[in-house]
Amino acid sequence: MSEPSSKELFEFKRTLQELSDKRGRGTELVSVYIPPDRQISDVAKHMREELSQSANIKSKQTKKNVQSAIEVIMQRLKLFPRPPEKGLVMFVGMVPRGGPGTEKMETYVFESPEPIKTYIYHCNSEFYLEPLREMLEEKETYGLAVLDRKEATIATLRGKRIDILKTLTSGVPGKHKAGGQSQRRFDRLIDLAAHEFLKRIGEHMNEAFLQIEDLKGIILGGPGHTKEEFLNGDYLHHELKKKVITTVDTSYTGEFGIREVIDKSMDVLSEIDVMREKKLVQRFLRELINEDGLASYGEREVRQHLQMGAVEVLLLSEDLKYQRGTYECASCGHSMEKTGKDLPDTETCPSCNDQMRLSDRRDMIDDLVEMAEEVGTEVEIISTETEEGMQLLRAFGGIGAILRYRP
Ligand SMILES: [Zn+2]
After folding, report:
1. How far is the CA of 348 from the centre of ligand 1 (A)?
2. pLDDT digit string (tens) for 290-325?
């Protein structure tokens, strides 16, 4: 099953934001989550039941709106012989644009970004977005291992989900069991056995973690020093070693140990994203200071550099609240693009002075992300949680580029 790309995720988040702002006049916004293995005919049957149920709604207006929403859903369902691979999400309802009488039927239908587990039908004054929110939070995978000389457990953490992949035991006896004159020889055997055990742990971790695309990081835990011994030794693949974020002391191994590791490293994990953003903006700022530095900023210059394919990483502030519009002149055929906070519907044509109409309006972030995708430029949306993020927004208009070469 393919993972959504960062652009897709960004778009889902944008849609989510849009949807969360919508309110119905009554409890009349309908949300439906259809798991991939649910028969569309079952859903249609359920919709017919809801439709007859809705006859009991007291408010005439709400009743009418709920019924229209369900009818739209039934129409849309006909387009699907079966749900798509990860399931289907539908949000339908009458949303007011202003005062009374401005309601318009809004319909959002799309494939879920992650597999839907439970069927949900929900009717309220807001869309029900919790499952979608959880999916979008769940995209990062961490590798976890707790170990001592006796036992090791390997697991992954994805959102809130923990998967235990493997539990290994060593059979290495404790040192205290030895005695007498053979003590030294016995200790040596134990060390050898421990070394063999760490090797086995390493092999299993390599096998489990190397195949995870976009593994965000690894955290090692366990009582005592075995985890440090493991990390400092030559047991883990060098690519994985680079991903070890931290080690955590725990009282247990096994599944309890894994839970301890997660509890103790929560703060560390949320810091990581923030650190990443900080580092990127810092890199951008360092480049800017150099006379021949590989960085540019501002809409015009960055657009130019993007088009040339000169941008390695495009940094966009999440608070970039501009629109990009296309104006067309019906009289002379002239067209132009314009950026602004609130674009007017018409503009004066620079070539014939006639009125130009706004034919397309999109969010500037979307516009730039699309441009970047076309030329294979990596995009990072930078939050304003950090000082660096604020600096990008305030001092550089929220648009920065780290360049591949100096154009
Ligand atoms: Zn014109």
Report:
1. 8
2. 888 999 999 999 999 999 989 999 999 988 989 999
pLDDT of 190 higher than 90: no
User: In the block, which residue shows the tokens 């049957």?
Assistant: 45
To which CATH superfamily is domain 295-403 assigned? Ribosomal protein L30/S12 (3.30.1330.30)
Query: Where are the chain's structural domains?
Result: 6-137, 141-271, 295-403
Interval between CA 355 and ligand 1 midpoint (Å): 7
Number of separate helices (H) and strands (E) present in the chain: 11, 17
Å from CA of 335 to ligand 1 middle: 8
Secondary structure letter of residue 54 according to DSSP: G
Q: Does domain 141-271 have CATH number 3.30.420.60?
A: yes
Q: How many Cβ atoms sit within 10 Å of the Cβ of residue 226?
A: 23
The string of DSSP letters for 257-297 reads HHHHHHHHHHHHHHHHHHHHHHHHHHHHHHHHHSTT-SEEE
227 and 199 Cβ atoms separated by less than 8 Å:
no
The whole model's pTM is what?
0.48
Q: How far is the CA of 361 from the centre of ligand 1 (A)?
A: 19
Burial class (CB in 10 A: 0-12, 13-18, 19+), 171: exposed
Tokens standing for 66? 């709920």
What is the 331 CA–ligand 1 centroid distance (Å)?
Answer: 5
Cα(360) to centroid of ligand 1, in Å? 17
Q: What distance in angstroms lies between residue 327's CA and the mean position of ligand 1's atoms?
A: 10
Q: Which CATH number fits domain 6-137: 3.30.960.10, 3.20.20.150, 3.90.78.10, 3.40.50.360?
A: 3.30.960.10
Sheet arrangement for strand 355-363:
335-340, 323-329, 355-363, 346-348
Segment 119-143, tens digit of pLDDT:
999 999 999 998 888 777 656 789 9
Distance of CA 359 from the midpoint of ligand 1 (Å): 14
Q: How far is the CA of 346 from the centre of ligand 1 (A)?
A: 12
